[in-house]
Amino acid sequence: MLRYVIGRLLYAAAVVVGVSVAVFFLVRLGGDPTALFLPPETSAAEIARVRHQMGFDRPILIQYLEFASNALHGDFGQSLRYQQPAMHLVLERFPATLQLSAAALSLSLVVSVPLAILAATHRGSAIDRSGLLLSLIGQSFPTFWLGIMLILIFSEMLGLLPPSGRGTWQHLVMPAVALAAYSTAIITRLLRSSLIEVLQTDYIRTARGKGLSERAIVFGHALRNAAIPTLTVIGLQVGALLGGAVITEEIFAYPGVGRLAIQAISNRDFTLVQAFVVLMAALIVTINLAVDVGYALLDPRLRTR
Amino acid sequence: MDRRQVLLLSSLSVIGFSSVGGTTAAVAQAADTVVIAQAADAYSMDPAKHSAYPTANILFNIFDPLVTLGADGKFQPALALSWSNPDPNTWRFKLREGIKFHNGEAFDANAVKYTFDRALDPAFKAPYYSRISAIKSVEVVDPSTVDIKTEKPFPTMLYALYEAAFPALIVPPKYTADGGTDGLARKPIGTGPYRFVEWVKDDRVVLEANPEYWGGAPKIKKVTFRPIKETRTRIAEVKSGGVDLIADVPPEDVPGLNRGETKIATTPSDILYFFAFDTLKPSPLQDKRVRQALNYAVDVNAIQKSILGGLGERIALTLPRTAFGYDPSWKPYPYDPAKAKALLAEAGFPQGFTIPLNSRQGRYLKDKEIMEATIGYLGKVGVKVEAKYMEHGVWAQVSEKKGREGLIFPGWSGTDPDLVWYPLLHTGEYQSYYSNPRLDALLEKGRSTLVEGERLVAYSEAAAIIQEEAPHLPMLQPPLVYGLTKRFTWTPRIDSMIDLRKAELN
Question: How far apart, in whole angstroms, are the C-alpha atoms of residue A144 and residue B99?
């Protein structure tokens, strides 16, 4: 088990380093941002002067080595636009995004798990069919469309919820629903089909033969085995939720890292984009690591590998 | 603890976690509070450390400039009471006396000197350095008089000193120096109508009225600026009363906002929509008749009506109608496709030709739609346009190498011919794709004297050349459109700055 965890850790570190290399060079593909920070009438000579001052005229390899060595010391440089430490700007907004993603994940679990159990145990019934329809809708509606519709209905027409911002729980409702829609759909479908599969296996038939109640069978035996593939998907969905928060935050003007990242990308704020991507990569890799370890805990066969 | 319990506990903890947090008002605002939604948050609270209008809009209500732009497009006194030119290279400002910054520090000539010395220091790296870089030095004559010196006569000096030249807002010397590199950037102190209260990044900037404001205490007691990027969300906010003023309303939403509890405020902006013709590289555009033909070929009035809902202002030459030297008797080329075809035939292109178009898209209001409509009109006279829309960074690179080609839709702004025609039409300027020694001489004359009469004559002659030679296809000043709640009274400005000094709630 320890060897397994150490192996996964090394792999995770390699992924984060790889991502940092990729983002450093990708973000620079479209040219340097000097002119974007200056007034439109700025002369070519002035642009060149500022570029030199910012160090963008140096060989890209030198720039990368400087970035890498500073990043190893926890210094991701100054944001070009904000003129403040980039990682600080990202971390400052991170709790808001975490709150939104956590709310969305809880919401989707609270909805999808009971729905999947009901659907699997009442296969072919009206509940099952409406559950399937709901998850089809959740999977096929894009977040931005759903978000705008929610605002239109609940803010503009009914006046029930504030369209944007952060603060009270009311502010969190629509963004969490919009963000949760997709993962709710995925988790419902997957958990339903795994449950159905498990419920047809021999040991469940044995349990039924023993005269166990259906409730004991589902919660005591079937759910545990059906949870294994679902856990992987939930782990992946956490990453998707953090990523999906980018669009959701933009629509609901929610002050999280996603909105900061979008703005940084359109401003070509290299340092800020780098800090954001490295942090997100580290986070997602950590979640995957946790899922892998959790998997091993649930399924003893995996530990020996 | 089994998995069900873990799940239950974790969802409960999330709900608990969710209910903690700030207290942004959910819906309708208090009677003395105004909320303003712009597309972006502030980058910094230091006027010399940013390069964005949404930031400038906030800071302009905390700080004051020396001079300010009036509704008529003329400069008016702000912290400076009056100005004169003792010699062509000196601008002398008499300052208001007895004014204090929000922290009690006195405003005087020294504050003016400190403000510009700080922003002009190359080590300070002010992004809008070039807006004020014509200033050679600032000299204190006495506590209420200051001289701003230039190398050579600089007729557009006041444009370097008003609110839209971002680093021109006057900062308190002692407070700023004591605050180190980012004291002012976190907690700004100015002389303006509003005092800084708090800045919750990406969520809100809160200001409160300064009852001792020298221009009279503002009527609205509290102001909150909120960043809301998504247009639909901004509209939903103003309709549900959570916000009193939203910027950047698309023309198609004007009817929907112009009823019920909301209204519209609009003005032509100082932005210029026009096509510049690349006459430097070999192409049919080097022929004056072709350039004139393209001017005849496009029905700009119809474009304005259908795409901008008739908002904005048609221009005859590339200059806003309120600009210095704009003559109302100037007439744009009329829409006359037959004449266009005749001119093209005369120039040797009876079958038309193919030409590239270079631009960004989504940079300005409806820019892509307007370019596409223009391409349609040009097609009708046989000019086939191959549009190449570039991403911002690529556009900047191409521009820097002077690589724009064919028809160029750059967008520009400026309310003096020297700020528009010199950079866009003078030979060798980095954004200029035209060269005409006669025009060069006039543009140089216009920027070398402070005497308004001489400048007017030079620019009037320059206008005649530009009209005849047609290096541009001037179109219009697009509108600035704002949505307001019924209770809020406020007037938009041509330069898009949001000034709350005269705003009222009823």
Answer: 50
**pLDDT tens-digit profile of B198-231?**
999 899 999 999 999 999 999 999 999 999 999 9
Helix ranges, chain A (H): 2-28, 34-37, 44-54, 60-72, 86-121, 126-140, 143-150, 169-199, 202-210, 214-216, 223-251, 257-267, 270-298, 300-303
DSSP A151: I
> H or E stretch including B389?
strand B383-390
d(CA B245, CA B353): 47
Q: Could you tell me the CA-to-CA distances from B71 to B68, B97, B324 in Å, in that order?
A: 10, 25, 14
Give the integer Cα–Cα distance in Å for A62 and A48: 19
How does pLDDT run across B421-467, given as a tens digit for each residue?
999 999 998 889 999 999 999 999 999 999 999 999 999 999 999 99
For CA atoms A82, A85, A91, A92, give the dihedral sign.
negative
Say yes or no: ipTM exceeds 0.90.
no
Which of helix, strand or coil describes residue A104? Answer: helix
Find the closest chain B residue to A90 by CA distance. Answer: B201
CA distances from A261 to A277, B27, B135, B226 (A): 9, 28, 37, 18
**If you search the block for the tokens 């593909």, which residue do you land on?**
A29
Phi, psi (rounded to 5 degrees) for B331: -120, 135
User: What Rg value do the Cα atoms of chain B yield, rounded?
Assistant: 25
Phi and psi at residue B227, to the nearest 5°: -90, 120
**Backbone phi, psi, residue B470, to 5°:** 50, 55
Question: How big is chain A by its Cα radius of gyration, in Å?
Answer: 24
- Chain-chain contact of B40 with A169 (C-beta, under 8 angstroms): no
Residue B431 touches partner A, C-beta closer than 8 Å: yes
Which residue on chain A is closest to B28 by alpha carbon? A162
Cβ partners under 8 Å of residue B112, min gap 6: B66, B79, B93, B95, B138, B140, B146, B170
